[in-house]
Fold this sequence. Notes:
Elements: E1 2-7, E2 11-17, E3 23-30, H1 34-52, E4 57-62, H2 91-96, E5 103-107, H3 108-119, E6 128-133, E7 137-143, E8 146-147, H4 181-185, H5 187-194, H6 206-226, E9 230-234, H7 243-255, E10 272-273, H8 281-302
Parallel strand pairs: 1-4, 4-5, 6-9, 9-10
Antiparallel strand pairs: 1-2, 2-3, 6-7, 7-8
Bound molecules: zinc ion.
Amino acid sequence: xxxxxxxxxxxxxxxxxxxxxxxxxxxxxxxxxxxxxxxxxxxxxxxxxxxxxxxxxxxxxxxxxxxxxxxxxxxxxxxxxxxxxxxxxxxxxxxxxxxxxxxxxxxxxxxxxxxxxxxxxxxxxxxxxxxxxxxxxxxxxxxxxxxxxxxxxxxxxxxxxxxxxxxxxxxxxxxxxxxxxxxxxxxxxxxxxxxxxxxxxxxxxxxxxxxxxxxxxxxxxxxxxxxxxxxxxxxxxxxxxxxxxxxxxxxxxxxxxxxxxxxxxxxxxxxxxxxxxxxxxxxxxxxxxxxxxxxxxxxxxxx
Length: 303
Ligand code: ZN
């Protein structure tokens, strides 16, 4: 059995899953201060142990920024975050104090990408990007089945778009860059620009075209830089499913016919797609991290 924790900025999801990755027990609660929240996580794990016996591994998918380098003294710590009380919290250490077995650890968005790769909308490809467009914009990148970390972890939401002609006056809402993609296309940017979320705007409101253009531009840049075999678009903004054809059209326009592949022509509907796991992606990603950690520990023992 595996334990899985999705540590989100607004909610935590704790789960127990079997060897097939099927969740047999789940608990969700609001993210409050670190002591209270992590106390509830530990209580969940203790109760799970009494019900299911010893767990083989844990997976932790955390909101960021987080330190992912195993050699770093701050490995497993949350970095500077506007979330009160959470900056420098050793979230991995809190779990390690309760559980002595292997723990897989990654960002929540990398974990969601992993889950969509293993069980969801990208299970038939090896290289993909998962973008979440909600209160922020985040991106997880899977290359050959494995999440990319590199220097830290990708921060795709903060790349810089070319501004839409109808949007040159808008300053953007990112506190670091103003008009990065997150600053012009995440949920708060839509409200700052148009006074309402997309769901409340008429279909002929220019906000739809602006949003689709920025996200299509981002997808085009991902095609050009990372060459993914699929792009999965999730998050609260993407619940407006009429964005999908608009984004595909904008991406095609930005690519200008330069990349000649079936997936970017007739196969476009299967190239830029919604997620299949919905709000289970994060916690199932944590399950995948636990399974991988158990496998890695097993291999280490074998050596
Ligand atoms: Zn930014």
